Amino acid sequence: MCERKTDYAFEMACSNIRYGAGVTREIGMDLQNMGARNVCLMTDRTLSQLPPVGVVLDSLTKHGVKYKIYEDVRVEPTDKSFKAAIDFAKQGHFDVYVAVGGGSVIDTCKAANLYASHPEAEFLDFVNAPIGKGKPITATLKPLIAVPTTAGTGSETTGVAIFDFENLKAKTGIANRALKPTLGMVDPLHTLHMPSRVAANSGFDVLCHALESFTALPYYLRSPCPSNPINRPAYQGSNPISDVWARHALKIVAKYLKRAVRDAGDVEARSSMHLASVFAGIGFGNAGVHLCHGMSYPIAGNVKTHRAKGYNVEHPIVPHGLSVVLTSPAVFAFTANMCPERHLEAAQILGTDVSSIKKDDAGRVLADTLRSFLYDLEVEDGLSSIGYTKEDIPSLVKGTIPQERVTKLSPRAHTEEDLTALFAASMKLY
Amino acid sequence: MCERKTDYAFEMACSNIRYGAGVTREIGMDLQNMGARNVCLMTDRTLSQLPPVGVVLDSLTKHGVKYKIYEDVRVEPTDKSFKAAIDFAKQGHFDVYVAVGGGSVIDTCKAANLYASHPEAEFLDFVNAPIGKGKPITATLKPLIAVPTTAGTGSETTGVAIFDFENLKAKTGIANRALKPTLGMVDPLHTLHMPSRVAANSGFDVLCHALESFTALPYYLRSPCPSNPINRPAYQGSNPISDVWARHALKIVAKYLKRAVRDAGDVEARSSMHLASVFAGIGFGNAGVHLCHGMSYPIAGNVKTHRAKGYNVEHPIVPHGLSVVLTSPAVFAFTANMCPERHLEAAQILGTDVSSIKKDDAGRVLADTLRSFLYDLEVEDGLSSIGYTKEDIPSLVKGTIPQERVTKLSPRAHTEEDLTALFAASMKLY
Ligand SMILES: NC(=O)c1ccc[n+]([C@@H]2O[C@H](COP(=O)([O-])OP(=O)(O)OC[C@H]3O[C@@H](n4cnc5c(N)ncnc54)[C@H](O)[C@@H]3O)[C@@H](O)[C@H]2O)c1
Ligand SMILES: NC(=O)c1ccc[n+]([C@@H]2O[C@H](COP(=O)([O-])OP(=O)(O)OC[C@H]3O[C@@H](n4cnc5c(N)ncnc54)[C@H](O)[C@@H]3O)[C@@H](O)[C@H]2O)c1
Ligand SMILES: [Fe+2]
Ligand SMILES: [Fe+2]
């Protein structure tokens, strides 16, 4: 099933990435080369005190580049926080955007650039249907340089911006190739500042991007088959190019994530994870993610009181990477029968000897591999330990339903009962 | 030496690729989506009689797209044949270019688009220095859709156009990101028409793109280190991203090239090689190639009487893939000591058991692996069998000197004496 070939196409849309230790020191020169006269620098209040932003500011000053700074990005942004950034962007009439931060900052900056370039648009116009209107983007956006400081979302490679829609209690987003940053400037030195839990959670995001895009419905089984190529979605299912990225990212996660979490000074491990986040981003940006991400959106959106360790924020949050990884053992146990070879290969890359494992056991084995991986990294023991009870499951299921854009890429079709069972199975992990 | 990390950056510039059996049937719709009103379709006289061009023409007609066809592309183009195509393009005032063919067609079309967009420019203006002036490209080129029919040059992914400069008796080219096609439409069905020797020779090109980019000088050892990022060359040395592409392309070559050459009806093998040519193209487009390619340019340019088997052309040629692969055993024996692990890994991917081989023997082992690979594919026995004698070596060396743009990416520095020895060692292979 997973390997059938048909007369069906896939696209590889790729991103311009510059990678190198210290590479952001040159950013002022890049902005000069672009003729930037009025730059919008977006970040959050933690990063604005740290070297990643300091280095950029020094370079702007050195090269005489004029800028305004917006440091009010909300960690785990909401529709409200997106709108505040959009207002700032509209007033500033900027000609280039620079986002220095994790996914929260980069996504906010993408949205600010988009709506400032479309001043007449209403907020819901570009938000993914069925929640928003999913209208096409017609204006040309301003250039955006993304400088990721987590390892991470891969947002520097994707045309996606995610926010928590507070009324709905679930995340949704804007997905359009036009949002893709002009350049991702990936400077691994910036990741040395991440607190250990940020390294862990953003690393789990990389892990799930890789696992989900690797096991996503193959591109030739996706439906509907668009009659005009212009309608082919960005999330087109797993394909031989995204597979290359996903496998490679998974290998790096297997080798380096534990080291990167345990020792902030392990430059090799943190640098490697930074590159893995780019690889996994390109992979899922072309193939898509599925159930872990689809189910994560209400897990993040329904948060009540959970205070994330190591996150310097005022409001309760479930960090994105944590919200995706907590359901991963249940999800891959559920999907394994559709392409057991890939689930076994993933387990093997993550360090399990699968040589004598039967295909029927692929799901159990990958789930066990993930559980012990998470246990070693001291991850909370399931949804129950971040404040959810059985009574919350109906709302979690309800918040997953509108995430069809991603969940339909699950290799296994699923009902509301299946989702209920997956949330229930994720209440405790160990 | 090969793995030292320094404070140095590399870039990944990527290409938009659409891959799928039958995907060119949609091309008329793409052109309509782009608003094309006057399309230039370039091809050569062999292909113009074959289905790859037929399918495109049918699609243009079906969607009412107006076009003019240019079928005079020279196989292994020259400055003269480039100029003829440029004249056609200038007179046509086209708004979109479509190239259906191998590297010869795609490269010619890139040049035609470039000079038609720069009507005031002289031919040498954009040709690589020191042969040409290497001027920056300032105009915006028209969109170009490349439909590769060989597997192949990877020209659909690169900003490079190569031609034989007849006065110099050596190939040179134009290298600029602006030349990169807007979209590579990779339809593996087209490769089913390749004669066996075209499949072999274009497959050797893939092999050498992968091997050379995998063993190229690492990006952090390249000199000079540009002081402004805008001056970073496209060929920047091997790096962790190009490595992913190179390794993967090599694996496909190892698995499928022989099958693709021996059985034109082996769809799996020919399709896989078509994808490998894309992968290797992205790899070398970012990392560069080195000695096999640098030395191939005079090997092709000095051709006297060699008639390439299976090529339906009037003039003597050494097909590009043959001209690169004939020196490969000598080249990798020469470069191996600079990064023996990579040479051994390549030999292993190509099927040799290297578990008990010492590092010092890496060059010999990879060279032997290549020789037996070429022998199995009935490749001519060295430069002597395509008409060269010892007396020609000084001209071959002389034609290699100006290819510094690529040869400087060799992991091992080399003198004229070294080049002389490499040509001499390539006279006979078996
Ligand atoms: N656009 C996409 O393709 C995509 C993909 C996945 C996730 N996301 C979204 O991205 C967001 C999560 O982003 P994230 O995981 O990168 O984390 P984040 O941006 O939310 O940052 C998490 C915390 O770490 C801090 N931080 C970030 N980098 C730091 C550094 N180098 N040193 C010290 N502190 C640092 C931040 O200030 C913040 O407090 C979520 O909203 C998620 O939905 C987007
Ligand atoms: N731009 C780059 O990045 C790049 C890279 C490598 C090589 N090149 C250049 O590309 C050229 C070689 O291109 P190539 O190897 O693709 O071959 P080609 O374009 O020269 O074609 C070789 C022969 O095969 C025929 N042919 C091609 N496709 C066919 C098909 N599907 N069915 C039947 N016949 C077919 C052609 O008509 C021609 O006779 C050289 O000039 C080389 O220097 C360019
Ligand atoms: Fe994610
Ligand atoms: Fe080549």
From TrEMBL, chains A, B:
Is-annotated flag, keyword Transit peptide?
yes
Q: Which reaction does it catalyse?
A: 4-hydroxybutanoate + 2-oxoglutarate = (R)-2-hydroxyglutarate + succinate semialdehyde; (S)-3-hydroxybutanoate + 2-oxoglutarate = (R)-2-hydroxyglutarate + acetoacetate
Recite the UniProt keywords alphabetically. Answer: Mitochondrion, Oxidoreductase, Transit peptide
Q: Which GO terms describe its molecular function?
A: alcohol dehydrogenase (NAD+) activity; hydroxyacid-oxoacid transhydrogenase activity; metal ion binding
Q: Name one GO cellular component term.
A: mitochondrion
**Enzyme Commission (EC) number:** 1.1.99.24
Annotated localization: Mitochondrion
- Gene3D superfamilies in the record, alphabetically? 3.40.50.1970, Dehydroquinate synthase-like - alpha domain (1.20.1090.10)
| Domain of life, per lineage | Eukaryota
Domain Fe-containing alcohol dehydrogenase-like C-terminal, by residue range, is 237-427
Question: To which protein family does this belong?
Answer: Belongs to the iron-containing alcohol dehydrogenase family. Hydroxyacid-oxoacid transhydrogenase subfamily.
Annotated protein name in UniProt: Hydroxyacid-oxoacid transhydrogenase, mitochondrial
Supply the source organism for this entry.
Answer: Sinocyclocheilus grahami
Q: What is the lineage of its organism?
A: Eukaryota, Metazoa, Chordata, Craniata, Vertebrata
